[in-house]
Write a structure and sequence with these properties.
Mean pLDDT: 97
Strand content: 15-25%
CATH class of the largest domain: Alpha Beta
Radius of gyration: 21 Å
Strand order of the largest sheet: 2-10-9-8-5-3-4
Helix content: 25-40%
Largest sheet: 7 strands, mixed
Number of strands: 14
Oligomer: single chain
């Protein structure tokens, strides 16, 4: 069996032990004589799995007791509509503030504009989102319902190292490309959400961690399956939940716990990122796309000084089992997504290839 190092931004590489466990249990899960994808979401066995997943996520994240965990359809982008529908009514002005540090915050702001005022209060768009923009949160309008950020920018390779203190105004963070990759103080947030397909499992579902007091304020026209209250009252099962995604998330969380939890994986992630960034910074042949002070540890973006070599770089990398290194079209160049499941050996293999490629083409 040939396994590559998958640097794709998502759906992303999953831990091999997780895939092997899912393979071994696929035809007979939990001794039931059927696959987990055949088991009723209303069964006692699946309810137990869902509750166990709740407990694992809460434990590993260090999530405060005043937060609910919801599993919702549509992955992260569905939340671009769900967030304003549920939170804009917190203030009569129906206003949301967006600190734009990349593509996904812009899309979220455009979607929110369907339901109220969606205001850009800071942006780094002029520099192609290569850093996190400065913003004085004390200047926020008091009638703002919430502030929306993207904590890690998959396309551009930047992240928030410190989060803004928005006081009584709830801070909403899209953490799709970094949830469970570093220790987070969730007391700073009102809502954190993430699609599973980076660090938590397969695509198609999102985990939403929301302060309980923010549930129950949805606009009257909010569709039932976009209303957080609907999910909270039904243990995320107002209709048939994505049972396979929950199962895979459960396995990933158990794997993460076996690695020593989030503090341990954060140290490994820092080591992996430093290895690649050091290789980029050691030469003029490669150039980092994000400003050094704002670099992501999940998505490393860089270009070649001679873009005419891009095609050869990608072709030769893939021949060596280094898969999906092409950067997003709006940034160009290369992107190495090194989520939790990427081993240090994969990052070392990439660095070895980069250095060899420079020797032969520099």
């Amino acid at each position: 069996m040939k396994r590559v190092y998958n640097f794709g931004a998502g759906p992303a590489m999953l831990p091999l032990p997780v895939l092997e466990k899912a393979r071994d249990e696929f035809l007979d899960w939990n001794g039931l004589g059927m696959s987990v994808i055949e088991v009723s979401h209303r069964s006692a066995e699946f309810e137990a799995l869902l509750t166990e997943t709740d407990n694992l996520l809460r434990e590993l994240a260090g999530l405060p007791d005043n937060f609910d965990i919801l599993y919702v359809h549509g992955s992260a982008q569905m939340q671009f509509a769900a967030i304003p529908l549920n939170l804009m009514p917190l203030k009569p002005a129906h206003k949301a503030a967006f600190i734009e540090s990349g593509h996904w915050t812009v899309l979220a702001r455009k979607e929110a504009a369907r339901y109220g005022q969606a205001v850009t209060v800071a942006t780094s768009e002029a520099s192609n989102f290569n850093h996190i923009p400065d913003y004085d949160v004390s200047t926020l309008d008091a009638d703002t319902s919430y502030v929306h950020i993207t904590s890690n920018n998959t396309l551009f390779g930047s992240r928030w190292n410190e989060f803004p203190d928005t006081g009584d105004i709830p801070l909403v963070a899209d953490m799709t490309s970094e949830l469970m990759s570093r220790v987070i103080d969730y007391n700073k947030f009102g809502v954190v959400f993430a699609g599973l397909q980076k660090n938590l499992g397969p695509s198609g579902m999102a985990a939403v961690m929301i302060r309980k007091d923010l549930i129950g304020h949805a606009m009257p026209q909010t569709p039932n399956l976009l209303n957080y209250d609907t999910y909270a009252k039904n243990h995320s099962m107002p209709n048939t939940i994505n049972t396979f995604a929950v199962y895979m998330m459960n396995l990933v969380l158990k794997w993460l716990k076996d690695q020593g939890g989030v503090p341990a994986i954060e140290k490994i992630n820092a080591q992996k990122a430093k290895l690649i960034y050091d290789a980029i910074d050691a030469t003029d042949f490669y150039r980092g796309a994000a400003q050094k002070a704002h670099r992501s540890q999940m998505n490393i973006t860089f270009t070649l000084a001679d873009s005419a070599l891009d095609k050869a770089f990608l072709s030769e990398a893939e021949a060596r089992g280094l898969y999906a290194l092409k950067g997003h079209r709006v940034v160009g160049g290369m992107r190495a997504s090194i989520y939790n499941a990427m081993p240090l050996a994969g990052c070392q293999a990439l660095v070895d290839f980069m250095q060899d490629f420079e020797r032969r083409h520099g």
